[in-house]
């Protein structure tokens, strides 16, 4: 098999995986539509993921698949598990769609998934630290975010690498993302974090609060 054939097969596998993520996001949104999850819906979701298991072993699907297996291991789905699964699916799908007036270019996109965010939420150090941004920032254009980081003594960068300190995820998803709730930068940062690198993945709202506190200084 030639190198071109191998590369083509890798690209095809990636496209199939991407379609599975998008299909699963759609399924989860449908299940959440009435604000309830009954056992039959949880079982259907698990059956779908089991049938697509090869694509469910990577983030973010592996988080949902593993927890669903644990919930339904005893073939019983109680109210506490329903509450937990609702919250997990909301995190996976980004929750409700944002109103059009705050959506990108008048087109409704998703809120970003909160699944990749560090827990517990870390304290942010700005001085001599690197920051990368992804998604649409309610704070303002990317250049304004970079300017604020630099004002506080940090450095704004455009790409993910092993020495990145913080990936800041915009509250609103981006039309340029690979999926409606997350993109490649997030996937790369999660992979690096899982490998033990010290990249922190934080939400825009936390970044704004910490930046404001840093600007105001100690009281």
Number of strands: 4
Estimate the global geometry from the Cα principal axes.
Answer: elongated
Strand content: 5-15%
Please estimate the helix content. Answer: 40-55%
Spatial ordering of strands, largest sheet: 2-1-3-4
Order of helices and strands: HHHHEHEEHEH
C-alpha termini separation: 66 Å
Low-pLDDT runs:
3-14
Give your account of this protein's structure.
Mean pLDDT is 85; it is low at 3-14. This protein has a four-stranded parallel sheet with strand order 2-1-3-4, sandwiched between helices. It has helices at residues 3-32, 39-51, 61-71, 79-93, 142-151, 184-194, 204-216; strands spanning 130-134, 155-157, 166-169, 200-203. 28% of the residues are buried. 47% of the residues lie in helices and 7% in strands. It has 219 residues and is α/β, with parallel strands linked by helices.
Please sum up the structure shown.
The protein is 47% helix and 7% strand.
Secondary structure elements and pairings:
Layout: H1 3-32, H2 39-51, H3 61-71, H4 79-93, E1 130-134, H5 142-151, E2 155-157, E3 166-169, H6 184-194, E4 200-203, H7 204-216
Parallel strand pairs: 1-2, 1-3, 3-4
Keywords summarizing the entry:
219 residues; disordered N terminus; 7 helices; elongated; four-stranded parallel sheet; alpha/beta; 7% strand
């Amino acid at each position: 098999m030639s190198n071109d054939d191998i590369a083509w097969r890798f690209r095809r596998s990636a496209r199939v995986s991407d379609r599975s993520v998008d299909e699963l996001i759609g399924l989860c949104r449908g299940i959440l539509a009435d604000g309830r999850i009954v056992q039959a819906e949880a079982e259907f979701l698990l059956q779908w993921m089991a049938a697509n298991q090869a694509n469910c072993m990577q983030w973010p699907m592996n988080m949902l698949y593993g927890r669903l297996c644990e919930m339904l291991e005893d073939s019983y789905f109680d109210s506490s598990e329903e509450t937990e699964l609702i919250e997990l699916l909301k995190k996976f799908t980004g929750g409700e769609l944002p109103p059009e007036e705050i959506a990108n270019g008048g087109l409704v996109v998703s809120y970003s998934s909160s699944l990749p965010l560090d827990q517990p939420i870390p304290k942010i150090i700005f001085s001599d630290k690197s920051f990368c941004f992804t998604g649409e920032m309610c704070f303002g254009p990317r250049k304004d975010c970079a300017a604020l980081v630099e004002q506080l003594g940090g450095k704004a960068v455009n790409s993910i690498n092993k020495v990145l300190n913080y990936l800041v995820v915009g509250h609103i998803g981006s039309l340029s993302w690979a999926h409606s709730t997350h993109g490649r930068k997030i996937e790369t940062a999660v992979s690096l974090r899982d490998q033990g690198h010290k990249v922190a993945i934080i939400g825009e709202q936390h970044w704004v609060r910490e930046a404001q506190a840093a600007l105001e200084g100690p009281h």
